[in-house]
């Protein structure tokens, strides 16, 4: 049995190298060629494979050894003293665990073992692939005793003529029709009507199969469970025509507005029947029914009785019910009607190519949910799955599956809806940009479920600094009581002094949070916390930024930023800022009162009732600045000066705030030498230039309700 590598798959999500890239290193001209002996690699070669693939320097030696042993077969000649494993077995195994399409994985595995490239594998070679599939399933915590017969059946079916060989088309075709195998290979799901969204699940209580009605057996009670309707089957039963998944839309406009329960049998956990108020006993198999939308429970015999009307339960305000969605014949719209974002999207069409439309339900605010599954480790995927269960899967969009365009297009004609973005600040910025570009008739307000760390925007909108696994139902309830606020967004335009000079590309054209030049509170701090918190990220995704941090923490930057005021000038609405009495090492332009995970550079200020129109375009008088509060909707940015590393440490720990320099509706900064800069936490190195920051627009955001004690993660 293979040891489970804790965090290994999360690790892989952030890495750039694919198995096939690592494999190339073992070719004759590759960096690791000398560790390959024919078809095999030795233990050192295996260690280097892991190191290269996972981009992880300190992979535990003991774990590496155990993993290596798990690849040894009777074919590896132990007696000769040569401890080796087959390179293709290792490659096949890791490619199965990788991100990607099942079809590609099946093909990759096939080609790996098709040594002579004749497009045919003999049965022993296919057995080897299957052995690696079991290996991978085992790693993922599956009980492989059930998968083995499923795969055996598949092989019998594939090799119809019993020739003992399998061609690539036969192999791929067989694999693509095998539901448990597809789940194992990480089927990327697009919601087709009637098709369950399967995932492998273990239960800690007795559960019955919706197809054969028998109990899920085995120590781990493993089964395939639909993410949307919780229909549950044995792995083997998933291939036996299970009942279709719940409908996510009605068949015609006439049927819209007819709200009826949608029952799925079984697994009612001894709950109470909503009709007769008696307990539903589930001792004898598949008993009781649960409504997919309102989650009401009934006895089998009570389900056919009144009331039939489904009110969508606790989350009715958020749910886009099936009876609000209907198909229409596809009509080609003119270019103006169809923003480029929505090109050929398959997500909002029926299997026969009709386009889905929404008929609004009065007094509801359907929630359009965008999830960035790559945010916050595996948290994103979990959140995606839970929302697909709590709401209609047609209102929950996976951003790695076509971006925000399809969702925004689908909802665009609704008069009243809200958006929930699940991801980091960068994801929120992406959605706000998409809303700008989509030319929507109404700009829906946006709430944030912060995934990962350092979410400044989410934090100051009272959605917390990072999702801590709290029940999503409570977050939905908080959204109902949230209030709309306007948030300024700023355009930043960077013009090079010398157009020949080449710096890094400027990361964004829009500032949502903040912009800074020179040393700022983050640099040293971020370097250390990043390293402690995400060593693996630091080795891969952050690798290209490493030089920046090294530079930032070295003496060089400190020295080069010491005389910052000599190499830049700042003009606010035509007024030149006087920097002569300050020892500046950094400048920050703030839109929101949180930076780098919660430090407040402007500092506290009493909120005044002064109307915005009274406010001058620019304030530089220190006495007035002293009493000016920061506000994300006043069409002004706050400009602060940062004096040095020690002061920054104090700012970070909340002991001090930075020097207030101005509050302005426009700012122009000219620099005379290359300086490090950052927008919303994305750093880059910028050659001499002129920077213009001007007001772009206001985004409609949702501010979470006032914190009840201990409820929000405000740290
Ligand atoms: Zn079954
Ligand atoms: Zn289903
Ligand atoms: Zn219902
Ligand atoms: Zn009943």
TrEMBL record:
Its EC number is 2.7.1.107. PROSITE patterns: DAGK (PS50146), EF_HAND_1 (PS00018), EF_HAND_2 (PS50222), ZF_DAG_PE_1 (PS00479), ZF_DAG_PE_2 (PS50081). GO terms for cellular component: cytosol; plasma membrane. Gene3D superfamilies: 2.60.200.40, 3.30.60.20, Diacylglycerol kinase alpha (1.10.238.110), EF-hand (1.10.238.10), Probable inorganic polyphosphate/atp-NAD kinase, domain 1 (3.40.50.10330). It comes from Danionella cerebrum. Diacylglycerol kinase that converts diacylglycerol/DAG into phosphatidic acid/phosphatidate/PA and regulates the respective levels of these two bioactive lipids. Thereby, acts as a central switch between the signaling pathways activated by these second messengers with different cellular targets and opposite effects in numerous biological processes. Also plays an important role in the biosynthesis of complex lipids. Can also phosphorylate 1-alkyl-2-acylglycerol in vitro as efficiently as diacylglycerol provided it contains an arachidonoyl group. It is found in: Cytoplasm, Cytosol. This is Diacylglycerol kinase.
